Amino acid sequence: MKFNSIEFLIFLGVTFFVLWSVKRNLKVFNILLLIISYVFYAWWDYRFLFLIIFSSLIDYTVGYWIPKSQHKKALIGISLSVNLGLLMFFKYANFFIESFQDLLHQLNLQANYQTLSIILPVGISFYTFQTLSYSLDVYKGKIKPEKNLVAFLNYVSFFPQLVAGPIERATTFLPQFSRERIYNYPQAVAGLRLLLYGFFKKMVIADNIGIQVDAVYQNYDTNNGFSLYVASALFFVQLYADFSAYTDIARGVAKLLGFELVKNFKTPLFAKSFPEFWSRWHISLTNWFRDYLFIWLAGLNKKSSLWRIISTIILFVVIGFWHGANYTFIIFGLIHGLGFIPRILSRNNKQIRKALSFLNEHKVASIFSMLGTYSILSLTAVLFRSPNITTATAIFRSITQDFGSTLNQGLLSVLPIALGILTFEWITRDKKHPFYVENLHPYVRRTLYVVMIILILLYGYFGKEPFYYFQF
Length: 472
Description:
Elements: H1 6-20, H2 26-42, H3 49-65, H4 72-106, H5 124-139, H6 149-157, H7 159-162, H8 170-173, H9 185-218, H10 225-256, H11 274-280, H12 283-298, H13 305-323, H14 327-338, H15 341-346, H16 350-361, H17 363-385, H18 389-401, H19 409-427, H20 442-459
Helix pairs in contact: 1-2, 2-6, 3-4, 3-5, 3-6, 4-5, 9-10, 9-19, 9-20, 10-17, 10-18, 10-19, 12-13, 13-14, 14-17, 16-17, 17-18
């Protein structure tokens, strides 16, 4: 069931009234919420419902026994093996089969391995990390095991954020299922605002830009380098509007039901460097990898700047690979990891530290840093958007050798949309939430809501364009 569909609005309306009608009974509320979440997930493909239940039960059991067992490492090993094993099989099995076959061909050896007919379970990259983080936190002693099975199953399957995050931590999210359910009107209103903004960003901004970007990429051999570069720059606007819209809708739905989800974005397209970009983009994923991979990896040699650079590059290659089983994502991650080198070197070099501080804090220099960072991000977007290395190479060749001066008319038509969302987000960049309109006069605010709804009805694509991160 897609968020951007009429079916979901009906589903949400029924869910809202059913759950709040039993708010006095927390046990019934949680049981109904679990059933609703499973129905939502089964709507995609009921066969994969058993997979998420299996993964949840494994980590619930592991978490339960870790404090009582003398074989803690074996138990956490089971959690790691099951979660990463499922992810590797469903998401990466064919990639490794094809890569191994290519290697044998290059060695002039006969190979005819067949790829597997595997359907990627929606949301598996997100909920496996969520359950795994719980087991790791119990193992490290950061949290106590959750005894309430229904609460734990809800933590894993909470339908607003199940498919594409944000990736929640048990330390902050799991306790919310044990709190008394009290309807909070201001919280619900804030949720509705996030819902409206999310629907608007997805259906009016991201989808309309995406159609034109797709048209250019599908005909990359007939478009000049200028159009291809602008399409790549617009793709990052599309991707941000699309993914942040999902997060806004997820957080909005959660607020309507009395829950709070973490923020996943903080105006990342205005970042002045790669480190700042990743501190603002898909924050829950970046923090997950930082806490459970990078800290351990960098800790193997804390004094060496070279090892820290290597650890950072490994980290971002893994983050790139997390996005998809494709060499384009690996190279995308590699480039972003290299973008951290100046900051790492600045730890022991006063001159580099001063230079970075100047680029970040000086008014004029910071604008150039912002534009420069986005320009490079737009180039890496070629790797993110291209289906394979061959296509990416051809696009880079056009950008560097056949830039041209004419712009694709489709891209030209959506430039005002992209500039509009960027302008609004720049104005509200320091506000506490992405759609901050509380300071407007009530009549102006309501008029804005009506205009946005009309634009969604006129120009929105209901259920036709899936959220981009669903494929990950």
